């Protein structure tokens, strides 16, 4: 099925060259065992046999026209059934007086599934890629080094067999980019990376080659968005194209602000705000600057833009506002927690709730992720501040993506002491 560079005798074999797809080479004639059934009885015979006793997995249909008799059909039997005819099938054949026949079927590339084709192209010993991420019309593969000679064939076969695909790409390298977009190579189809996905009633349009997107986070996006109350304020420090902030705004959270340092993500977030007809403010700042801006502007009661308690609710009482920060940049987000240290100097500002993502390779990721937070904020998280440590997903063997939710704790008593008090303590020590 493929052409390769041949090794000179005595020389170490060079790596295999690229493999090309010749669809004609898949043509073959196969002989199946079937039963000849009068057309009128076909439905009932198929029902009695049941799907698992019929041939016709993949794209081959189990009931075919009989070339010798237009009033009959050939019902193909599964290969396993052919080899060991079960009692029920033998009885059915006898009771109905059905004729058992050998039937030749012309098969080709069109009748085969992607898996069947790839099993023939890729040599035994190299696993056939079994999964990929589909983002709109784009299939995103993460192929292994052994797949290198077969990668364009893999791309083409997926494109041929999955009608919703127009583009197939492969992730390149493991180097993390600053904005977490993928380095990718085109394997098959058109080099159009602008795509659209739907998630929980929201539409997201973006250029997959320029921004971060991971469809596997959809459960997490909605889990977090559903924690927010309408009277709350939500600030996403690393918002990407908006999968937390847009659902939050759509669910009626009254103050929502999304920030991302990647200018392409920022632009896409703005477009998605319009596309989803929601109201939220977008920012294109470094995460630390954004945290300071939010604290000084929206959380400070002395600021004109202060977001205080919302107006009286049903019971006439003001609804208290919780200020939430979300920080999904798991490799680094925890290091940004130092930007909240300024809250220690601002006791009149209500402490926010922070949802920060990280990775943990510990046997107890829930505990260890909290320890990571404590190490950066420089104090233990008291039980009344820790809301939870949630296991988002397993990203690699022994590596979990975690989300720690906590209310920023007040300073430890010694650090919280008023400057005068601290001075008098120092004086006493020097006395
Ligand atoms: C893992 S993505 C998450 C995006 C989005 N929250 C989501 O769940 O899909 C992390 C985002 O952080 C952004 N980012 C990286 N460094 C940043 C920084 N210093 N300040 C703000 N955003 C940053 C990246 O551009 C990227 O969009």
From TrEMBL:
One of its GO terms (biological process) is tRNA N1-guanine methylation. It holds the Pfam family TYW2_N_2. Residues 132-410 form the SAM-dependent methyltransferase TRM5/TYW2-type domain. One of its GO terms (molecular function) is tRNA (guanine(37)-N1)-methyltransferase activity. It catalyses: guanosine(37) in tRNA + S-adenosyl-L-methionine = N(1)-methylguanosine(37) in tRNA + S-adenosyl-L-homocysteine + H(+). Coiled coil: none annotated. This is SAM-dependent methyltransferase TRM5/TYW2-type domain-containing protein.
